[in-house]
């Protein structure tokens, strides 16, 4: 799947037809989109590489000073499509498991059915959580729209009082009150915009490699620097023989942002003091809200002879202590394997024969204590 790039000057009012995932704008406004031929670069990783997280909840962007309602509308529509797709995928999985339970109910082991039932309940909990998350986002967006309408009304009042004659003291007081309301509604919009941004989840980005066809040669070294708001990711790699690529980092987690775009800079390291910038592009991210992982390609230079391949997975939740349905199912089935499904009574419960033996021993002890034995 091809990926175009945005120009450095951000234009948010022009509607652009993009590819299905992670699309943007070419470096010139009238340049046609470039298609990417399929390729499968081989990427090797160094020992000990792991997912990088160079930020925490405290590193999120502060509330903006100027709201971006048009941009928020675009992100909200993309987010709703992603959540709907997530619900559909898990609903299909739930129906598949329910059908499997009905077909296997007669001739199957009890433990197998028990594991399937655990998976069904886990997916049902995840679906309820997704629905609650979607309803929360809808409430935030509705509150944002209300504040936007109030702000537009206050703006019209300020404009009307400003263009007219100064008038009486009542007119000046009304102008001051309208200006105060406009400022208050603007601050509320900024706070709601920041709150909605905190509900966008996570982007898990996996480095798959560079593709340059005749552009890449054995021994070449590259540095890739990604900037997404206040979040950074820098990685270095080299091209080895047999088209193998070795990178010092492979995965990164980014928190989605409303008004920011993903900036990618690729530099070729020729020597200690000779670094050549191959390309510096800015990419759209609102099309990454998808239920399934997406493999996307970024045109690094203008000719499209060097491309960056990334695998992006969107997680609608950004808390590590709340795993997805699949990971919950795997953990539950692993724990259940330690115990026998057919052992319905605790091991310390004595049988009737053992209880009679204990009673006789107690009676004998009482008789010995009173000297009657």
From TrEMBL:
Residues annotated as transmembrane: none
UniProt xrefs under SUPFAM superfamilies: HR1 repeat (SSF46585)
InterPro entries: FAM65_N (IPR031780), HR1_rpt_sf (IPR036274), RIPOR3 (IPR026136)
Segments forming domain FAM65 N-terminal: 16-362
Pfam family, one: PL48
GO cellular component terms given for this protein: cytoplasm
UniProt family annotation: Belongs to the RIPOR family.
Name of protein: RIPR1 regulator
Gene source species: Chaetops frenatus
UniProt lineage: Eukaryota, Metazoa, Chordata, Craniata, Vertebrata
Gene (name only): Ripor1
């Amino acid at each position: 799947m091809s990926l175009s790039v945005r120009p450095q000057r951000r234009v948010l009012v022009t509607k652009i037809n993009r590819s299905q995932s992670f699309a943007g704008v070419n470096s010139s406004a009238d340049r046609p989109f470039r298609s990417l031929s399929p390729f499968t670069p081989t990427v090797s990783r160094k020992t000990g590489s792991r997912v990088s997280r160079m930020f925490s909840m405290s590193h999120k962007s502060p509330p903006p000073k100027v709201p971006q309602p048009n941009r928020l509308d675009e992100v909200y529509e993309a987010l709703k499509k992603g959540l709907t797709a997530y619900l559909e995928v898990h609903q299909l999985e739930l129906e598949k498991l329910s059908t499997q339970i009905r077909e296997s109910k007669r001739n199957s082991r009890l433990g197998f059915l028990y594991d399937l039932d655990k998976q069904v309940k886990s997916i049902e909990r995840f679906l309820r959580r997704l629905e609650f998350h979607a309803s929360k986002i809808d409430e935030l967006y509705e509150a944002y729209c209300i504040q936007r309408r109030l702000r537009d009304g206050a703006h019209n009042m300020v404009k009307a009082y400003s263009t007219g004659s100064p008038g009486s003291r009542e007119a000046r007081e009304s102008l001051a009150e309208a200006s105060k309301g406009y400022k208050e509604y603007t601050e509320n919009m900024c706070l709601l915009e920041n709150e909605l941004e905190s509900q966008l989840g996570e982007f898990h980005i996996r480095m798959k490699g560079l593709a340059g066809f005749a552009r890449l040669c054995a021994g070449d070294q590259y540095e890739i620097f990604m900037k997404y708001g206040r979040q950074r990711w820098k990685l270095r790699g080299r091209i080895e023989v047999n088209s193998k690529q070795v990178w010092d980092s492979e995965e990164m987690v980014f928190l989605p942002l409303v008004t920011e775009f993903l900036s990618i800079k690729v530099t070729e390291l020729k020597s200690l003091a000779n670094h050549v910038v191959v390309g510096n592009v800015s990419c759209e991210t609102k099309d990454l809200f998808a239920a399934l992982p997406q493999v996307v390609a970024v045109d690094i230079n203008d000719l499209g002879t060097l491309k960056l391949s990334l695998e992006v997975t969107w997680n609608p939740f950004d808390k590590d202590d709340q795993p997805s349905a699949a990971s919950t199912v795997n953990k539950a089935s692993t724990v259940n394997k330690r115990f026998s499904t057919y052992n319905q009574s605790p091991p310390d419960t004595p049988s009737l024969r053992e209880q009679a033996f204990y009673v006789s021993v107690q009676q004998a002890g009482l008789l010995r204590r009173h000297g009657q034995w």
